[in-house]
Write a structure and sequence with these properties.
This protein is α/β, with parallel strands linked by helices. About 55% of the residues lie in helices and about 10% in strands. The chain has two domains: about 1-60, no CATH class; about 70-240, 3-Layer(aba) Sandwich (Rossmann fold), CATH 3.40.50.300. It has twelve helices and five strands. A five-stranded parallel beta sheet has the order 2-3-4-1-5. Helix 2 (about 15-25) packs across helix 3 and helix 3 runs antiparallel to helix 6 (about 110-125).
Length: about 260
């Protein structure tokens, strides 16, 4: 009879309930619980499993670069980081407000780690997220013009709750790149959130775009409703390498 019940749970794809029922069968103390109490535990197990699966799917689709957590941040290495603002961002209220986030700092300082941590927080709160290196995304959109998928790709981006653009303005954008960025940000302004990671200070962005008119339009939709985090400090890659060298893990005579 028990096996028949387990088989039926399998047929109904109720894996969480099946696992919980097996645990109840193996635990004699479960017999002291009422039917309603035991059934509630089965439902809780099924809901928890489905929640975990949905989260795993969101994280996989997000394509974050690192499995990073806010709690693991090295505040000593990332100097002048506004901790109160970071705590506020970790609450994901900015996503509910449809605001943007701008992370600025030199290479290797931890922008990717921080953006990954905030993106994972967004996934945990149920927000659909996607991470992109900006040059690669813009190249994919250029290809989309040739193969007829351009409009579809833009529409797909517009539906995502959080789009993360790393390596922002790492190279001068073409006219097509500028127009694609304007389309993306215009679709998202006031409706969805965007996170930017850049080595270039915000005050230099206008000049970096090359076209003053498009620069005005893009930055107007991006900067004015954004929270800014400016990170200072030594490159974490550099300091990590020095720590490993001092520990004897890396032979300094063999480094390129």
């Amino acid at each position: 009879m028990r096996q028949l019940t387990l088989d039926r749970l399998d047929e109904l794809s109720l894996e969480g309930m099946k696992r919980a029922l097996k645990q109840q069968i193996a635990n004699p103390a479960s017999s002291d619980l009422s039917f309603e109490e035991r059934f509630e535990l089965l439902l809780d197990a099924e809901c928890e499993l489905r929640t975990q699966r949905r989260l795993a799917t969101r994280v996989k689709r997000a394509g974050v670069r690192q499995n990073a957590r806010i709690e693991e941040l090295d505040y000593k290495a990332m100097r002048k980081l506004d901790r109160s603002l970071l705590d506020s961002l970790a609450s994901c209220r900015w996503l509910k407000e449809k605001r943007n986030v701008i992370l600025v700092g030199p290479t290797g300082i931890g922008k990717t780690f921080l953006s990954s941590a905030l993106t994972l927080k967004a996934c945990e709160e149920g927000f659909a997220s996607r991470y992109f290196r900006a040059p690669r995304l813009l190249h994919e959109l250029e290809v989309g013009r040739a193969d007829g998928t351009h409009k579809h790709k833009l529409a797909s981006l517009a539906r995502v709750d959080l789009v993360v653009l790393d390596d922002w303005l790492v190279a001068p954008p073409s006219d097509g790149n500028r127009r694609d960025l304007l389309e993306i940000l215009d679709d998202r302004y006031g409706r969805k959130s965007t996170m930017i990671c850049s080595q270039l200070p915000v005050e230099h962005w206008h000049q970096a775009f090359g076209d003053p008119t498009l620069a005005d339009a893009i930055l107007d939709r991006l900067v004015h409703n954004a929270y800014r985090l400016e990170i200072q400090g030594e490159s974490l890659r550099k300091t990590r390498g020095l720590d490993m060298e001092q520990a004897g893990i890396i032979d300094k005579t063999t480094k390129a």
